[in-house]
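Figure 3 (text version): structure tokens given as input.
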């Protein structure tokens, strides 16, 4: 899986785990809903600025959206935190 697909799937998995619609995520991140759909489907690459906006809405560090995926648990590396998901530290 290439990085563009990975980022899209991570966004989609986190968004769904939080119960946020694609339209709501796009609205909160101030991006077009059609663009958000294409990012999630790996058709468009996302800029660092947009990635940061999406991460803020999902309440995660942007690095979580770039992380390798765990097929058994797509949001592994994250834990529930204040109002969202936070990256777990590897210790």
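Below: residues designed for each position.
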């Amino acid at each position: 899986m290439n990085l563009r697909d990975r980022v899209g799937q991570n966004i989609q998995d986190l968004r769904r785990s939080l119960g946020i619609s694609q339209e709501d995520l796009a609205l909160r991140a101030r991006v077009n809903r059609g663009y958000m759909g294409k990012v999630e489907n790996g058709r468009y690459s996302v800029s660092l600025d947009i990635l940061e906006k999406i991460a803020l809405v999902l309440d995660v560090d942007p690095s979580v959206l770039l992380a390798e995926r765990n097929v058994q648990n797509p949001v592994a590396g994250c834990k529930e935190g204040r109002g969202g998901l936070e990256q777990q530290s590897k210790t």
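The helical segments are 3-17, 22-29, 33-40, 48-58, 62-66.
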